Amino acid sequence: MRIRTLVAGLTAGLLVAVSLAGPAQAATVTATYTSWTWNVAGWTIHRGATNDGLIPALSDSIRNRAANFAALNELCWSQYKAVQANLLGSGWPQDDSNFSRFEAHSETACGGEPFGVALFSRAPLGAANRYALAADGTSERRKLLCAPLETRPHLRFCTTHITPSNAVINGKNINVTQLDEVRSRIDSFAASGDTVLIAGDFNAQPHYGRLDSWYSASLNTPNNGANTGAYRELDDTDSRCPGYGETTVYDGNTEGLCGQGKKIDLIFVRNDRIAGSYSGDSLAIATTCGGPCSDHRIVIGTVTVSVTT
What we know:
This protein is an alpha+beta fold. The protein has one domain (about 35-309): Deoxyribonuclease I, Chain A (4-Layer Sandwich). Helices cover about 20% and strands about 30% of the residues. The chain has four helices and 14 strands. The strands form three sheets. The protein has a six-stranded mixed β-sheet with strand order 3-4-2-1-14-13. A six-stranded mixed β-sheet has the order 5-6-7-10-12-11, covered by helices on one side. It starts with a helix and ends with a strand. The model is unreliable at about 1-20 (pLDDT under 50).
């Protein structure tokens, strides 16, 4: 009886000790990644062409900027395949069969072929997540496209292209609805332990009220305040316009803050996943496509993040 009592006491003590220790914490690693994004106006300016200078201009930039991830908006299917071939030909991806994803906004908008958004990753990608956003009343159905790294599945790269429409649909501005849908999806990823990098054309300037629920409350500058969200944009510390950053549209536009053009192409990372420094920049528009290669600038951002392993 004494032995049984002693064993019971030891067992109870062990259970108390385990309870006091609390649940096991997930292991994390810290790593630095560079994201690259460009709205290439693949049909509007290029009419779907793959031989007018666009493909080498964007592929060279991805390589020269040592990007880990690249996101393209307004891309035609044939251009997507041409970028794949160019990057493969230079040995940029580590895996020659699993480094890119495409999601159509329209099946025919590029002269009869698909038109949409794309992701490229230097390291192999896992299965993509594809979400249709609320319809904006046009023939284009906008999407959120995400994919994790194959060997680091809690790191996820996403892109989206929010509608420029401000129409009220079902009692709410459709651009606000789409922004809320995207944020809800990536918040869900975060709640599951994921670190998300999202880059694309948000069709909203940083100081707009519809991005207040995106930008972290820790960002409060004369150019961007009243924020209630959980994310930082990688160019929001730019000394030329703190809290806003640098223009991402064509030179000569003066509709943005600090005497510059608008900033609508953004790269967001959740504030609580940032584990070091971060920075962003927009690049002058290449003119090697028989003129400007786009009406948007390339945007790059580098950030050190924590990732659950």
